[in-house]
Amino acid sequence: MPPRKKTDIAIKMEEVGMDIDGELDSGHEDEVRWRDRNRKVKLSPRAGGRNGKQATSEEEEEEEDEAQSKRAHKKKAKVQDSEEEDEEEEDEAQRKRAYKKKAKVQDSEEEDEEEEKSVKRKGPKAAGRNKKAVKQVSEEESEEEERGKKRKGRKSTIKNQKEGQNKEKKSDAKGKSDAKGKGVKDKGNEKDKKKKNAKYSSSSSSGESGDEDSLSEGEIAAQKEEVEEKKKLIATLRNKPWRMKRRLKLLKECQAFVEKFEGALGKGKGRKLYAYKVIIAKKMIKFNRDFDNFKTACIPWERKIKEVESHFGSSVASYFIFLRWMYGLNLVLFGFMFGLVVLPEVMMGLPYGSIPRKTVPRAQQAKAMDYSVLLDFGGYCKYSVLFYGYYNDERTIGLLQFRLPLSYLLVGVGIFGYSLMVVIRTMARNSDEGGDGGDDGQFTFTFKMFTSWDYLIGNPETADNKYASITTSFKESIVDEQENQKDENIHLRRFLRVLANLFILCSLGGSGFLIYFVVKRSQDFAKLDQNTLSWYEKNEVEVVMSLLGLVCPPLFETIAELEEYHPRIALKWQLGRIFALFLGNLYTFLFALFDDVNEKLEQEKYIKNATIWGLKEYYANYSTFHNTTDIPPPEIPPADVIRGPCWETDVGIEFVKLTVSDIQVTYLTILIGDFVRAVIVRFLNYCWCWDLEAGFPSYGEFDISGNVLGLIFNQGMIWMGAFYAPGLVGLNVLRLLSSMYYQCWAVMSCNVPHERVFKASKSNNFYMGLLLLVLFLSLLPVVYTIMTLPPSSDCGPFSGRAQMYDVVMETIEKDLPAFIGNIFTYATNPGLIIPAVLLMVLAIYYLNATSKNYQNANLELKRKMQMARDEEKNRRNNKESTNQVMHDLVGLLPNRSLIPPPAEEAPPPDNMSEKGSKFPKVAKRPGAVKVKGVNLQKDVSLAAPNSREAVTRPPGPRGPPGNARGPPPGPGRGRGRGAPPPRC
Amino acid sequence: MGTTASQLRKDLLSEYQELTFLTKQEIILAHKRFSELLSKEDRNIPTPRVPMEKVLSLPELKSNPFRKRICHVFSTSDMKDGSLTFEDFLDLLSAFSDSATLEIKSHYAFRIFDFDDDGTLDGGDLEKLVNCLTGETDDTRLTTEEMRQLISNILEESDIDKDGTVNLSEFQHVISRSPDFVSSFKIVL
User: Fold this and answer.
1) Which keywords does this Swiss-Prot/TrEMBL entry list (chain B) (predicted)?
2) Which ipTM score applies to this complex?
3) B170 touches chain A (CB under 8 A)
């Protein structure tokens, strides 16, 4: 007998299970096994709990009864369900019996958990066998939570099953859930329970559906639960890998059941409420589904992207999906901007030419409509709704009393808020999906084997490329494995890497300096007469920035050749460097711009003073001339009014120009770098000295990372510029729309699939992370200007106010009831803000600590798995002594149940002797095998009584009940593996 | 074949939505594509089957090295000829759809890779799998030595119980760790 802390009953059950195993060779092993496990799950907790106590004979009897009848039942089941179809799973089941037997000789506690796990894992498959199993699975799932409570209920469940076996499925299920319901309700009332169970099961199996009024409360609860269960089953049905026909049948049955019994539930008032709830729930489901359908119908370019996918695999398509996502985001931003700012101003604000800020100055009027001026966003463009300066500072406009300045500020800030929310939500959702991906090195070959094919590929050419790339990667990794860690000159490599980074730093610094220099120079140019400047001098900044963006990435790539990183790591480095470049450029540009803005502020102050001085003079002159104090304001046409430089509009224009030049450069690059190249390669190939298609220029590949980064930075500029140029968002929407079609066309017509096919997968969140970073970085300057810089005094919605955010104060004071103002004052009190910030910091700290804990737990688990695997290897390769030591080590670890138990993995000796398997260890332990064999024989013939007899060992020497995890004290038949070390 | 979409009964449509990971549009599209594959005389049979050759002619499957396996796995035909009914076809699309769970995807992936249908991936299966992945041409094929090495490496990594084969749970264990399995195990009509 196993000298473990298992109780006699557990042991007995085990043996019964085993004898069933021995008995059945074919047919419904899976189911049998399942039942077996199920029973064990049921028993073992109890077995664990009663450690050290003698089992009462009554209970034993019960168990035996159950076991026996179960066996009978199983045999029946075998005959019954022979029409089942999944043969291959059955084969698997056969093969797996080995594990099961092994599992049996494990500690019951470990078993308990592990069995539960494996039951769940195999659940769907076993469920495929017959309907009853289905229910057991779902029961299993729900039981997980309240297993302890329901142990009793479960037992009777199985009894009910037996009773109801020949009856209708429904009534059977009912009995089950009855029992379960009881289990939940009467958990304190152990004795009554059995009786009640019996009662309920009998009542339910007699088919009581007619008289619902006579249902007791418990039955209703049970029925409710049953209905819920069915609903759950309906909801999860699609997750089961069965044939459609079976699912359809099951679905219909479930639906019919729910239909039938749903209305009957509830009582009196409760009934109506329940019915109401049910109807609402149904409508909700339908509505949700319709809504989902609607949503998917709204997603544009599905076919276009699919076409790209089938030609280039998922990686290139991921760029287009990202582009589409960006388009959606910008559409929403555009909706805000247009609906709440631009449209009200156009509809209700003063018309063009009514006030100075809405009029082109006299000096510029002659050229205001010139194409070149408009192209620089001067002239009429500058004095239009597209830019900040056009908006009036009236507190309310139109009949609706629309508060435009307030709306302008809130939309400007709200754009950031919304974008942040969306980006973070998307990131969170992305990180939910996909495995942990942490153990990269562990499964290199397996991943290459099982997951390298991209099923989206539908183009033979791409498929050929893919074959080639997979072959290469196989070969590479084989070579890698063979000469693993063969270090050549590490010093040279290190030196080269440092050198490469030095180069890159130099070029980054150089580009930053260049931009600063150019922006400074452009400010000097701006002071000169516009007519004497050439086109280049006017657009120097944009040209230089675009050129840098064009030249630097390939340069970096060339430098990166020195480093000899793995392509994936190289890609990350490359991305990081390009990111740094763009960021550096953008921020240099911003700083230069701030210099400019400060200068303009000075200038504005001067002009303001001059204006005031002029006005005063005008008043003085007027009063002396007319000799009156009643002075009318000076009548100057709006075009002639002296006005300040309006730095906000200038900043806006800079951003719009930058965006436009970015668009131009991108499109031209595609046109020249891809299209013209492709045309040349295609048509000049006939009359060229070498093969152009295979040789040097070849066709372009789609540069995913570069394109994504370009998109991200473009978005950063939009975020920054949107506050100063509301039209920028609209422009960006147009850009994204056109580039979707343009790039789709370009990629399909002139690019070739990648030779090395990277997969999209993880990089998705990487891009999102970059986007978030850019969003944050573009948030900074805008918020800085809103909070600190004074707005221009004669243009824009905030003119005349000391700070932009004064609009909010104004609204609170004038439009909202006084108490809200009070609340606001309190809320902005540092006494409240500081604790709030503190609280947040604490929360962050706490969450951080928890996540670290989880990480540690994860690592621990991983290590344990690793250990279990290593042990496995050892056991296979080496002698037993080592593995015994290892085993004891594992046994001493806490949380033992979390390790995949070695028993499941270990090749069971007894089993091997039967099957004659290939493991060499069999021969070593003939004694154990023999004993086992004998025992088995006995069990087959005299299942229960014999096993009871076998329990002769008193539970005493098994050690204290708490220390259930120690190594076995005596020679273990159950382990079947060498003599365990004696315990002291 | 614009009218065929309406042939799909409404209640059936909603049931299919309940049972698959597909949306209404996708089911309708699937039905349309399926009806296009049917020959004239088949259309009057209550549950028509499309022979495997026709299914394989779909552009989505045409260049897939596992196309025959996919048909065999999803076929409910008694003759084992890989022919598909509409429901089988939906099963296929559902398993390969975007929103299918990892569990179901890995289950079917396992069955697709299990070339001899014996419930485990043994050496023979893996060899066939490698040959599928490296293409039919000789220049991309691996040598016998490489193949042996590769398969032993794979078994070393993923065969946890060391019985020389990869079974479903081992397979799912490995696959669940893969970052890009879910995103690449997709077929969209």
Assistant:
1) Calcium, Magnesium, Metal-binding, Repeat
2) 0.85
3) no
Rounded-to-integer distance, Cα A77 and Cα A32, Å = 9
Give the pLDDT of residue A421.
93
Residues A152 and A197: beta-carbon distance below 8 Å: yes
Partners of B137 on chain A (C-beta within 8 Å) are 467
Unique residue bearing structure tokens 């209404």: B24
Contact criterion met (CB < 8 Å) for A293 and B179: no
Q: How far is CA A61 from CA A43, A183, A357, A584, A777, in A?
A: 14, 22, 97, 80, 74
Q: Contact A897/A113 with Cβ under 8 angstroms?
A: yes
Angle ∠(A142,A146,A151) on CA atoms, nearest 5: 105
| Minimum CA–CA partner of B153 in chain A | A445
Q: Which of A463, A468, A478 sits opposite B63 (nearest CB)?
A: A463
Please tell me the class of the B101-183 domain: mainly alpha
Give the count of alpha carbons within 13 A of A355, CB side only.
13
User: What are the sequence ranges of the domains in chain B?
Assistant: 10-94, 101-183
Do residues A383 and A357 lie in contact, with contact meaning Cβ atoms separated by under 8 Å? yes
Q: Count of A–B CB contacts within 8 Å?
A: 230
A547: left (phi over 0), alpha (psi -120 to 50) or beta: alpha
Contact B161 A907 (CB under 8 A): yes
> Which chain A positions have a beta carbon within 8 Å of B87's beta carbon?
243-245, 248
On whether the CB atoms of residues A23 and A937 are closer than 8 A, the answer is no
Tokens at residue A580, please? Answer: 């740094």
Chain A hits for B179, Cβ within 8 Å: 434-435, 437, 759, 761-762
The most confident of the ranges A433-442, A477-486, B120-129 is B120-129
DSSP labels, A180-246: HHHHHHTTT-HHHHHHHHHHHHHHHHT--TT--TT--HHHHHHHHHHHHHHHHHHHHGGGS---HHH
B101 touches chain A (CB under 8 A): yes
Is residue A343 pLDDT above 60, yes or no? Answer: yes
**What is the rounded distance in angstroms from the CA atom of residue A707 to the CA atom of residue A747?**
12
A105 falls in which pLDDT band (50, 70, 90)?
Answer: very low
User: In degrees rounded to 5, what are phi and psi of residue A348?
Assistant: -115, -15
For the residues of A412-468, what is the DSSP string, one character each?
Answer: HHHHHHHHHHHHHHHHHHHHHSS-----TGGGHHHHHHHH---TT---HHHHHHHHH
Distance of residue A265 Cα from the nearest chain B Cα, in angstroms: 24
Find residue A752's DSSP bridge partners: A701
- Using the predicted structure, report yes or no on whether residue A336 has a pLDDT greater than 80: yes
Given a contact cutoff of 8 angstroms between Cβ atoms, the answer to whether A724 and A649 are in contact is yes
Using the predicted structure, report yes or no on whether residue A256 has a pLDDT greater than 60.
Answer: yes
Tell me which residue has tokens 């809200």: A820
Question: Taking CB atoms and an 8 Å limit, are B133 and A452 in contact across chains?
Answer: yes
Q: A708 CA to chain B: closest CA distance, Å? A: 19
Report yes or no: B129 at the A interface, CB cutoff 8 Å. yes
Q: Is B88 part of the contact surface with chain A (CB cutoff 8 Å)?
A: yes
DSSP state of A342: I
Which residue among B117, B150, B168 sits closest to A445, beta carbon to beta carbon?
A: B150
Q: Is there a common fold for B10-94 and B101-183?
A: yes
Task: Give the pTM.
Answer: 0.65
Minimum CA–CA partner of B182 in chain A: A434
Check residue A962 and give its pLDDT: 42
Contact of B13 with chain A, judged by CB distance below 8 Å, is answered with: no
**B17 in contact with A, Cβ within 8 Å:** yes
Does A474 contact B150 at a Cβ distance shorter than 8 Å?
Answer: yes
Q: How far apart are CA A178 and CA A172, in angstroms?
A: 10
| Predicted confidence (pLDDT) at residue A6 exceeds the cutoff of 80 | no
* Exposed / middle / buried, residue A870 (Cβ in 10 Å: 0-12, 13-18, 19+): exposed
B96 with A455: Cβ contact below 8 A: yes
